[in-house]
Amino acid sequence: MSRPVVIIDYDSGNLRSVQKALESVGTPAVLTRDPGLIKDAGAVVLPGQGAFRDCVTKLENYGLFELVRDKIEEDVPFLGICVGFQLLFEESEEHGVTPGFGVFKGKVVRFPHDMRGEDGSLLKVPHMGWNSLKKVRDVDLLGGVNDGDYVYFVHSYYPVPEEEGVIATKTTYGLEFVSSVARGNLYACQFHPEKSQRVGLEILRAFWAKASAAIG
Fold it and tell me: Choosing from 55, 94, 189, 192, which is the catalytic residue?
């Protein structure tokens, strides 16, 4: 493939599980931190796990922060997962204010400590496990996803976009938060498609369809 699908390898999260999930739907994704390969990429996947600041630091240490932002601005098919979703915003309050890519206006905030469920019980943070999606609008990568489908989350922070028009799905955990966004060829989600069984594979399959069409 002359313009590869790349998964950004910056030592954040279980990158191999993302690669295996993409391969299972036919995506020949390359796990790499090679700047030349990333620069030539026809599609980009940015996973992420752990603290926002640590992810920014790792991207900067590998010389990839500006390069990834440039690829997003090229409007190549892009999939951001978990912290790879949060990084698209202007800043995060996790461990002090840390700037992100600033692709979307808004900031990343923590779930309140005193959230309660419908039965009045105190909710644990991080939000971990299966939860449902409320589709806000139809986007390409959610074509095989139904309103109310369940996906897998592990997070204590979530983005608050200033632009309502980019919101693709919302999810409720004590409060309603934005669980995915989409604009142009970009789709990013707080949940983990690679851990979300059928629904996750539908999203990854749709991403590969978009990527293969763009690569030609």
Answer: 192
Q: Which residues contact 1 (CB under 8 A, 6 or more apart)?
A: 28, 42, 215
Q: Are 100 and 59 in contact (CB under 8 A)?
A: no
Number of domains observed in the structure of the chain: 1
Quote the distance between the C-alpha of residue 48 and its chain's center: 8
Q: What distance in Å separates the CA atoms of residue 168 and residue 26, rounded to the nearest whole number?
A: 25
DSSP codes of every residue in 42-90: SEEEE---S-HHHHHHHHHHTT-HHHHHHHHHTT--EEEETHHHHTTEE
Catalytic residue among 55, 127, 155, 194: 194
pTM, to two decimals? 0.96
**Residue 138, amino acid:** D
- From 82, 155, 189, 202, active-site residue: 82
Cis peptide before 126 (omega within 30 of 0): yes
pLDDT, tens only, 140-183? 999 999 999 999 999 999 999 999 999 999 999 999 999 999 99
Q: For position 128, which CATH number holds?
A: 3.40.50.880
Catalytic site includes residue 194: yes
What domain range is 145 assigned to? 5-215
